[in-house]
Structures are given as structure tokens and as C-alpha cells.
């Protein structure tokens, strides 16, 4: 099997799974497209054969498909529409007839479709005639019909005869499908092995044809073939000859004849491509994924591709993946060998059930067709249908005592053991079988069947392609063999014997006989050294592909997919290479619905390819040896957005601060966690022989799943985080170490405290680490002094006043390690991990869990005891807490944190912090002036006030003085603290974004539906998206079950969304929209989301299908994911990205422009009055031009939005 086929299938079934969440792309390489389409309902006619590949689970009719007249290319021979037909000349003893029926100078009939006039003579350059092939044994002697000029009546008779002969052939094919396999031998062998119950559908399918999931066709659809068929006319004709002579094709026949025999049918465009590494050889591709989107017909109905109506996951089989083969080789006894064998014409040996034929018609030229009765490459279920037969075959091999054996489609690799190790190895297999059984046995991921073993030391499960129950046998005494073969359990002759019995034909010239160094799947496997490398020819081919890429400035989607597939294949040998594929992945995603357009690659792509070229020139290899154990140093890392990064190794620690401005240019908490991972790795390396030895695999812990699981894949889609991963790869390689990440809950992570500024014993401090130069602008050692600069707005003020929270941390907690702070009443001491402020408290819980010294008690106003209990007091606090939304509590918690840091700096005793004096609160407020936005300063003060109220502490503040300070904070807020202007979304803007989205992609469908719902519902984005994938709470978040349809008194339909709870309405609120007559119609978007994603009732409303996920089929739409999709779409459309809040603003403006009264819009958008007017003032310049022709409305608008000249 050549590499083209291997990589195409690999990308779908295995490599995408091992490299993470690449759900959005369907890999189309070398002209072949294989994908997992949407499941469609199908009807099976005349199929009464048992077995999973013969009987679909549900019966129904697929979407009706309308006819489309094919527009073929004009040309000579097979490609000339005017080529006429004669009936086939039949050969009695032969099963296939191929006869040239008309010489160059002859005239031909049109089989009943021509006129009564004589046909004109035509000459052709190469193929002068239409060949008539009718593939079946007729039992008649060979007859050569004389060629003569015919009239209409004669032509009609000939056509009728031709049709009768075709019908006879089809009936014969139904009763006796074409296959080289010995069906009786298969059935007998399976019965003897006790496998007939499991694989009974295999002999049944070989007798009557296999069900492949092709639905009943309702409308004829015959799109033209691709230009490559015309460009390689002679090669195409050779392929046609071969297909007809092998009896896979029945015909040729006209469209009318095909409809008479099959009813409505559907053909798929053909094109041919050169076979890799085989000059002059071509592969025929039947593009069963065409059309790539439902194609409207004249009738108004749409035609869908054959593949889009097949669920390939319904046709699973085993795959000998890189991981599976690696595991097998790593555990082979010394001296073991391997052989490789390729099954001949694998797919074409599998007959399809007659009910599938209408979807397998092949268009030869503008007027001729053929019926393909066999499985083919490119059919969505094709690999699984053949794989089912191949699975039965390898099970018979194992039952015969041979193995281990694995397969990848038609490529089989056989391993054999020296007889002296056979009993030991069988004992090991028995142990694996028990472990597999304990783990639940057979698993299915998409179209792949596999068997899960125990967890390996790196916490990844063992992956087998068998249950390991078959016992290997010593077959050396079964027949004479060479001295070399005598040492092993079986030989190639034993395989040949079984294959001959079953009728399995092989490509003998491709056989790789048993040896220790074998090529397989494009890799070179060394069984003696237990290593794997790219085959030299592959490495050179991939280098050449990179050089060709670098010679061009722009590239098509096919260019990207080809190169990506090659390098993804190579990343099995070069795992760190996955971190250098992210730009190509992003490039692929940028094409959307324009695969043939040429684009410039993203920035840094060339640098990544230079890295790849350097690695490929090194001809690298990879060890297959698995670590016997993982060294656990109790190494942990964590990051906090408020403070910094902390690491723990054993009982030793170190910490760093995140500097102002770090959270920009895509750097987020994931990036900070990855930096923590990097610093932890470097700290381990710096410990040297004290902690590790070369070759070790070391476990490290973190509480950020994105980083932990991202490292399993070796890369991150976030560019800054991916750069950190690259650094870790380099450290790992240069020190000969492996690192495996494990997830730990945040509350159990010991690195949480140092990441939040709660530091340990200075005597247990880890050695200082050299921070990479590109990280020094964002990360600093916890004890590094902070330089402060006076604000340009107030240069006369002392620099020490301009302190942010980080500066408070510096003054309050950070002292030179050699001089630990001595607690005293007047000194600045760190926040204590005491009963008052428990360590590890999240910001949203601080109001409740951080307690003042003086708090609510069980005494009345006169100091007398009451009958109240502690539980009663807790209930009061718990109830008051519900007055603030979770997001508000989080903001207030941050303000409370800042307040206590300020008190630490000033040495304020605990008893003076609550109740806080007016002068303390004013002083705290003054410290915020000029450093924070006015709203931030106000929220920090309100946080301290809320803390007082919640715990029953009096709040005695000079309101006028405090308000003056907060006003000063608003006026002196630094420019860096001001948010970017939230420009509004418009309908035109959204339509431009839509053009960049793929409505058949689950994620894009969910995003578009969410965008239109939030916009036309004038809702908050956070009401329809989640903060994180795991934050879903049915009591807080909307689900599909919360949606209903209503009709108003005028008969207008409304879609109503019941929000279970909102920031301003604990009992929930309704949001609604109605159909819109533009391209941003929410109804169409909603219907598309339901069709593509079909979210269950118990998941978030805009959950989208994630077919690559191993644990769930639907993934929640988070706000970050939503915005990232829109940002990418805006970039492709060359638009400026807008913020999420701009959706609600834009909706308000859109409705106002339509004449919706201000007060009505304020209610629909659920605006607080002040906020409503604020946004209207900001966008008055947008509204005013549209209102100039309506003085009354303009006057009302100006009255509402323009601020008064004098405030009284």
C-alpha cells in the first residue's frame, strides 16, 4: 500500500485523535477525500441478509434528490457526446466481454435515442469507438454482430435487446457477486474457530453483497467528471478497461437505461491522480463527497453527496496504529522478526448489496455510464466495509496460532517469535488479556475498534488491536522449512496456506519477508534496537515538499493539506514537531468555503518549516522502549492571574510575579500556567543528579487541563502557549528526559499558595532559575524589587504613592530571603493563612469566608444573649450573599484582597479593619487614585463595604469625602486602564462574518446561531455561553429544553428563550426573537444549529458536536471559543474584530434605527437606565445621520442622549 492511501486514512482515523482537538478540518489529500459525514436515514430494499453491514439500524427515506443534467467536456472517443452505441458482442465462456463494435469509418446506432437519419462518420485520435462491456457469463457462443447503418426501428430493437442483456447481467450479479474469496472456506474456518457468531455477516455479505449505508436515491444526479479525466484520457481508458474486464463495472449504458434498470441514481465525479512512487500508474478517485454542500436543483430540492448521508462510524474495524505497532514491538522477545504483505485490490474484492448500486453509478463520459458493484476507495464506509472482512481474516490468522499481526487497511504486518520464547510470551499475552477484560474489553472511537489495556506509567492506556486471547502456536512441524524458519513459531508458507484456502490474493512482488528491519506505514521499524525512523525515501520526499512550498508565495487548501499530512506523519517519529504544525493547522482552517483560493500563509509558517527541514535532514529515529516506571518528585506548578506563579518540588518552593501588561497579545491564564510548567521543568533539570538520571520519565502536576492535556498532544493552539511548549521540548531533548503531566484539583495543588503570594519557609527556597530573556518583560522573581514611576498626570506626587496591587505585594510580603520579616504591630506583614483568611480562598468566596475580628454575634443591641444559634447567623450571611451575582462577588473579592494588602503595608491591626474608620477607607481610596479606572476603584471600595454588610459590621463612612475621591479616580484614571471603545455589531458586519464560516461545521453552526440569537434577542453574550467547559449548571445556564415557540395576537411567530437565572433576575427572564428577512436571520441559523448539532435537552443550548472527543459527543460553547471563532472570521474578512459586548449594543442600535421606541428597547434589552443612555451617547454619531429626516424623532433622540449643559 502506498503512502498516499495510508496518510489519508491515518489523518481521519488515528492521527487527528492523537494530536488533539482538530475537529474543524476534513483532510483532503492527493485528491482523495474521506470524512465522517452526517448520519442520514436510509431505506434498504431487497436486503434480507443478517449482519451489521447488511442491515441498517433505522429505516426511512433520505432527502429526495433532484436530477441535474451533467455537463461533460467535449472531446474525442469516450469524451465525445456524439459517440454512438452498439449492443455488446457476447463471449460464451468468458465472464467479461470487451469488443470494439465500430471501426473508425463505421456508422453506429444510438440505441433508440437517435433520429431516423443515418449517423455521420467520425474519426478519433485514440479511442475511436465506444466499447460495449457487459460483464457476466451468458452461456452463449461468441457472436460478432455485423456493423450496419440502422433506421429508428432497428435502433429501437437493438436498444431493447441491449437493455434486456443488461438486465440479465444484473440479475446474475445479484445471485452471484464478484469476489475472489472462497465463501465456503470462510464460513467453515470461522465456524471451526468459534467466530461465526461474531463474524457471520462476512460470509453472508460475500454471498449477497455488503450494506454500505448508501440511502435510497430519489432523484437522478449526474455531475460531470473532473478535468483530470480529460487530461489523462488514455490512462483513464486503461482504468475503464480494467474495471470492465474485472467485472466490477457493468455497462456501458445510457442514463435512460440506468434509470430503467436501477430507478433514480446518483453518480459522483471521477478524477485520476498519479500513484506515488509508481511512474506511469494512476489511481481512479470517485469523489463520493460531492457536492460538498447540499446543491439546490431546479425543483427547489437539494442534492446531498453520498458520503454526507453515510455515518462511517457505523462501520468500525481495527487499525494497526503507530501506537499499537509501537507497543507490540517494544514488548517482543529478543530475536523476533516481522514481515509485511499487501492485499491485492483490497476494496474491489468486496461486493456491495444491490440496494447500494444506485449510489455507485460511474459516469464515463457525457452520455455513458457504468454500474459499480464493488466497494471503492473514497466511499465514506469503504474502509470499514473492507475492514470488517479484514478483521475476520486476521482473527483466523491468530486462531491458526500465527501472530502477533496488525493491519492498516490492506497492509498487514506479521510478527513471529523464536520458539524458545513462545511459552513466556504466551503467558504475557494471557496477562494482557486479563487486563483488557478488566478494562472493559473492546472499545470504539469513531471508526476505530481497539482494546484498552492497563494504564502505563505515564497514565496513558495501552492500546491493542486484539483482545490477546488467541494462543500462539509452534507450527514448525507442520511442513518442511529452512533452518532459519525452524527457529520460529511459523513461516511465510503457513500464511500462504491459509490465504490460499480463503482465496485472499496478495501483491507478491510487494512482500517483505521476515527480518528484523522492516518498512511499514512509511516508517522503518528496527525490532532489534527497538527504534523507529522515517524511511529514507519518505524523509527526502518530505524535504522536497518543503522546498517546493518555499518556492511559492501563495498556496491552496490542497497544498496545505498535502504538506500538513506529510509532516503530521513524520511527527510520529519527531513528537516535538507537533508544536511546529499549529500554523499550518490555522492556515487550513482559514480557507472555510473557498478551498481553491490561494492565500499567503500565516506569519511564522516559514520559520516552522525551516525547523522541520533541519530535523528531517538529521534523519532522526525514536526509541520504542517504554519507561518501566515514572519518577515522581512531587513536582507541582500553578499560576494566579492576580499575583504570579508558584512551584513546589517535594517540600521546596519558588515563586515569580506576573508583571503588569502580561495579559496581552493572546497571553492568558493558560500561558501563565504553561510558563509555570516551564519553570518547574527547568528547576528539576537544575537539580541534576539529585533528582533525575538521563532517560528518566518524570511526572509533573498542574491544575490547568488545557496545559496538562495539551502536553499530551505536544502542542497548543494558543500561539504564546505553544512557544512555551517548544521550549519544554528543547529542554526535554537536550537532557534526555521525558515529562508526563497529570491533573490535580486546584484545592489540592500545593503550588497554589506560592502562586498567590503566600510563601513558605525561606530556608526551603529552590535555587534561582534563569528566566528566558523573552519572558523577562512579563515574569520576575518574587523577591525582585519593583521599579515605580510617577504618573505623567501628577509628577509632583511621590512615586511611592503610585502603587498597584503588585507594589502592595512587594511592600507587604517580599523581603530578601536572608532577612525574613519580623512581625510587629507597625511592620508590613503578609496576609496570614489564619482562621480569618483561609489560604486557597477563591476571589468569589472571599466576602463570605474571610472574616473580620468583630462580626455578627448572638447578642442583641444591649449585649444580652439571644436564643439564636451559629447556624442562624450563618443563614443570615448566606442569604445576604445572594444579593450579589457571582461575577460581582468575584470583583468585590479582588477589592477586599487589595484592601488587606494595603492594611498590611500600613500595619493596620485586624480590629481596625472592620469596622473600618472613615479615614482608613478614604486613605485606601486615595491610594487607588491615578492607578485604576474609576469603575475599578469604586468596585474595590464597594467590595470592602459588602464585606462589612455581609458580616454585620457597621459602615461609618463620610460619603461626600469618599465620592469626591472616587470622582478623582475617574478623572485621573490612566489611559491604559480605559477599555477599548465597544463598537457595535451591525447586520452588514455579521453577514460578512457569515461568509467566512462553514455552516456545516458543528462549531461554526453553533457560533452563528448563538451570535444571531444574542443579537436579535438583545441579550448578554454571557447568558448564552459558558465561562469554561466544565462550568455548566442547569440551574444557571439555558438548555434546549428551555426554548419554546409562541405566536402573538397578530399571528407572528416568536422563538422564546427562558434564561433560568440572570444577573438582575434570580427567577429568570425571557429573551425572544422573530424571523428576519436578511442574511442574518436567526431562525435559519437556529434551524441549521439544530440540524448540524442536534443538541440533547440536557446540554448547554449551543453545545456543538465534537466527533474527535473520546468522552463526550457534545462540547459546551464557551465565551472564549465563541469570540475566537468570530475573531478568526473577522481576520479572514479583513475586518476589525469587535468585542462581545458590542453585540448587545449593536442590537439596541439596530432596533432603534427601525423605529422601535426608546422605552420599548430599554425593556427588550433589559438595560439599566444609566447604562442605556451611556451607550446611546457613545453612538449618537451613528444614529444621527439616519434620523435627520424625522425632526420629531431626532428631537426625542437628542433629548435622551445628549448630556445636560449644566448639572444641578
UniProtKB/TrEMBL annotation:
Cited SUPFAM superfamilies: DNA breaking-rejoining enzymes (SSF56349), DNA/RNA polymerases (SSF56672), lambda integrase-like, N-terminal domain (SSF47823)
GO biological process: DNA integration; DNA recombination
Bias (Low complexity): 92-116
Highest taxon, organism lineage: Eukaryota
Keyword rRNA-binding applies: no
Name the record gives this protein: Tyr recombinase domain-containing protein
Polar residues bias spans: 125-156, 824-838
GO molecular function terms listed in the Swiss-Prot or TrEMBL record: DNA binding
Alphabetical keyword list: DNA recombination, DNA-binding
TM helices/strands, residue ranges: none
Protein's UniProt keywords contain Secreted: no
Residues covered by region (Disordered): 37-156, 812-843
